[in-house]
Every structure is written in structure tokens, then in C-alpha cells.
Design brief:
heterodimer; A: alpha/beta; 8-stranded mixed beta sheet; 10 strands; globular; B: mainly alpha; Protocatechuate 4,5-dioxygenase, Chain A; Xdiol_dOase_LigA (chain B); dioxygenase activity (chain B); dioxygenase (chain B)
Chain lengths: 272, 108
């Protein structure tokens, strides 16, 4: 049936790992918005949640890097990071190989997606699930866009991937929700960690909310790198989520939180 | 290819507890499986986080390795700054430093 939910959220590991270092007046409303989105997903009766992630060399490496991948297993595990560092315990997460197989087959009609029968989640998926599904109750379908190892897939292909996921979600009988997780501008894993270009973020979120393909895909990677840092490459996951929804987006929360090393956002889109 | 080999070692280490145990028990034996320069080998085994950063190891791979080595966040950032101070700007990759050597944008 029709996709029941499409949202976006930030996934930086500091969001959980450095919780105690963040100003509570910023952190707590962000956490509240994140959890509220989890409530909204549950309220749809979603039977599975597709997480469009930008993973960080937990599974895919430069020896064989897919532009797009979807997990196809009945079970996943994560986080790969030290659990004490991320402050999320290592756990098993339920998948659905048969549902994945049907989604992948439909996505492949327009996007050449790789499949993975083994997938270890890193912070890119575990941080969102920590807030969206604290009871570890949802069936998760991991999807990935390579945002780490250039050359990267063009933005218009990320949009096409989102469209393909939407078509695939609509084609299965289950109620499917979707979130894109990434960052907007950020310079993680460098001494600049904490640098955030708020103006660039807000302009991007305006484009995201418009769901306008031309505006969303107008960036070159050189522009993104200059204005949004290498972390800005992850706008691909938000672009895919906007494409899957098709409708206008609402930014429920945005604030730069430097100790989390990213502008922190929670938002969702109208499904049309 | 050598930087690729450093990153391949760290990628495999970061995601596999068995390799982590082997690395802790005998890091040199794990390093022997990869085609590394002496500088890279030393940086990995010490570990010299600042030099690994300057060599161009992908930041996400390096961050996960630093977490595995129990290096606290502020110390990890400072080690990268010190690496640039000693060895100069990063030699490869997209994780370049854009702030000043003594600038701490997040206060750490």
C-alpha cells in the first residue's frame, strides 16, 4: 500500500555519545522532536521502516563500493562502534529478507541497487533507531547511498533512488515508513568537528521542504564540499526521502549543536 | 595503494571483534598481512592518530579506530591538530582541516 511516512533526521554519533557535553536547552528539544517522530511513525501502523543511511565503512569499502545498496536479511546487528563510546548497546535488529527481496526487485526496475545479506549497522542507523524505535520493535530495511568514497552518485540519481523506493513501498502490501538520515553541513572526523554552516543548512532545508527536484539537485559536489564540508555529501539521503514522499516538508526541529558536530534536524514530508 | 592498505586494515579491524582481539594481542602480526610502509606500520601500531589523519585515512574509519583505542573525543581532536602541526596538511582524501590549529569550534 502507499508509503505511510517519510522523514529526515540527523545521525551524528555525538548525538548519543556526547549527550552529557551538550547544552540541555538545545539537546532536550532535539531529543523530544526525535522521539515525537518515532511516535508519528508508530501511529501510522508501519510494519517496516526503511532507513536510508549514509554508512561509514561499516560494510562497504573501496574494494567494491556500491552507489546504492539495500539489506536483504532477517537480522542485522549493531553498532559496530565501541558501544560505550556511542552509548548504544550492541543489539540484534529484526529485518525481513522476503520483504527486502520484493522491494529490491521493484527498485531495480529503475535503479541498479546492490543487495546485502549481511549488514552491520553503524551510528548512521543506530543513532536514529535509538530515538525512533527505542523498544527495538520495528522491522528495519537498511538502505545505503555512498556518501563517503568519491566518486559519488549524482544528486539526480539519489532523487531517482527515492522515487524507486516509493514505487517499491507502494507495491507491497505492508505499511512501509521511511526515513533518510544524514547530516546537512558538517565537518566530522576532522579537527573542525563542530563547524556548521547554518545559512547553508537553512537554505538546503528550504529546498528539501519544497520537494522541488531541480532545486534539490542543483548542487555540484565541489559546491557542497566548500559550503557544507565532506559531511554535506550526505544530503543525498534527505534528497531521496523528499523524492519518496513527493510532497512538502515540515522542519519540526533544526539547531546547530556544535558538540554533536552537525546541524540537528528532524522533519517529515507529506506523502503525495 | 599503500594508503588503501592502511584503510583496509582499519576497515576490517573496525567491524570484526576477532580481528580486534588479534590486533590487541599482536598488532604486528595483523599489520604483516597488509602491504604497508614503515611509516604507516608505525602509525598504526603506536597508534599515531595525528599521522594517520595526515596520511589521509578516511575520517570515519579513523574515528571508529580512535573509539576502539578508547581515545576520548577531545584528545582525538587534539591528536589530529597535533598531527597537522607536526606533519603538515593531509596528504590525501576529503577530511582536510579548515580551521586554525588552535581553534576549537565546539569548545573541545
Amino acid at each position: 500500500m502507499t508509503l505511510v511516512f517519510s522523514g529526515i533526521c540527523s545521525h551524528g554519533p555525538g548525538i548519543t555519545g556526547r549527550a552529557d557535553l551538550a547544552p540541555p536547552e538545545l539537546r532536550d528539544p532535539f531529543y523530544a522532536a526525535y522521539r515525537k517522530m518515532g511516535d508519528a511513525i508508530r501511529a501510522t501502523g508501519a510494519e517496516a521502516l526503511i532507513v536510508i543511511a549514509a554508512e561509514h565503512f561499516a560494510n562497504f569499502f573501496m574494494n567494491n563500493m556500491p552507489a546504492y545498496a539495500i539489506g536483504m536479511a532477517d537480522q542485522y546487528e549493531g553498532p559496530i562502534e565501541d558501544p560505550d563510546w556511542l552509548r548504544i548497546p550492541r543489539q540484534q535488529v529484526r529485518g525481513d529478507a522476503d520483504l527486502s527481496r520484493r522491494l529490491i526487485a521493484e527498485v531495480q526496475q529503475t535503479v541498479d541497487v546492490a543487495y546485502a545479506e549481511e549488514w552491520k549497522f553503524d551510528h548512521g542507523i543506530m543513532v536514529p533507531l535509538h530515538f525512533l524505535d527505542p523498544a527495538n520493535a520495528l522491522t528495519i530495511i537498511p538502505a545505503n547511498i555512498n556518501c563517503q568514497g568519491p566518486p559519488l552518485t549524482p544528486l539526480h540519481r539519489a532523487f531517482a533512488f527515492g522515487r524507486a523506493l516509493r514505487r517499491a513501498a507502494d507495491a507491497v502490501p505492508q505499511r512501509i515508513a521511511l526515513v533518510g538520515t544524514g547530516g546537512i553541513s558538517h565537518w566530522p572526523c576532522t579537527p573542525d568537528s563542530g563547524r556548521i554552516n547554518e545559512a547553508w543548512d537553512r537554505d538546503f532545508l528550504d529546498r528539501w521542504a519544497s520537494a522541488d527536484e531541480a532545486r534539490l539537485t542543483a548542487y555540484t559536489d565541489a559546491e557542497t564540499y566548500a559550503d557544507g564540508g565532506q559531511g554535506g555529501y550526505e544530503i543525498r539521503t534527505f534528497i531521496a526521502a523528499a523524492a519518496a514522499a513527493g510532497g512538502k516538508g515540515i522542519v519540526d526541529f533544526y539547531a546547530p549543536i556544535p558538540i554533536f558536530s552537525t546541524g540537528c534536524v528532524v522533519g517529515w514530508s507529506e506523502i503525495v | 595503494m599503500s594508503l588503501y592498505q592502511v584503510q583496509k586494515l582499519l576497515f576490517e579491524l573496525n567491524r570484526d571483534p576477532a580481528i580486534q582481539r588479534a590486533f590487541e594481542a599482536d598488532g604486528g602480526a595483523v599489520a604483516d598481512r597488509y602491504d604497508l610502509t614503515e611509516e604507516e606500520r608505525r602509525a598504526l601500531l603506536e597508534p599515531d592518530i595525528g599521522l594517520l589523519y595526515v596520511l589521509g585515512v578516511n575520517g570515519q574509519i579513523l574515528m571508529h579506530f580512535a573509539a576502539f583505542k578508547q581515545i576520548a573525543w577531545a584528545d582525538y581532536l587534539q591528536r589530529m591538530r597535533d598531527g597537522v602541526r607536526i606533519h603538515g596538511p593531509i596528504r590525501a582524501g576529503v577530511y582536510k582541516m579548515t580551521t586554525g590549529l588552535d581553534e576549537k569550534v565546539a569548545g573541545v
